[in-house]
Amino acid sequence: MTEFTPFLSLAGGALIGLAATLLMAFHGRIAGMTGILAGALPPFAADWGWRVAFLAGAILSPLVYQSLTHAIAISVPLTPTALIIGGLIVGVGVTLGSGCTSGHGVCGIARLSPRSAIATLTFMATAIITVFVIRHVI
After folding, report:
1. What is the pLDDT of residue 9?
2. Where are the transmembrane segments (predicted)?
């Protein structure tokens, strides 16, 4: 059972959109998290500073919000092994799809990219099928 929070979800989506817009406005870059992460890891990109700051904000902001409000209940119902396998599968998908959900789904669709629309539809269909299989078949 999940607890849907429409106002928090709307606020979170607006902040993601704002961050993507500001990154494009000030740095001319797409807010694709895997691309940002890749440039922040060795071998470092020449512009690694903003990448590290962006990632730090993405990681620390929910932690600060949680510490101030205690509104987010964080639980991970999977084993560390399942998380690692899932991460590797996502990494393969990001490589094959030339981008991630944030790059294609947030920024690509906003730029009316047909390739990003198809990629996002593929991500969503795969996620829906995966959840169905895990929850109802396995």
Report:
1. 87
2. 48-65, 72-96, 116-134
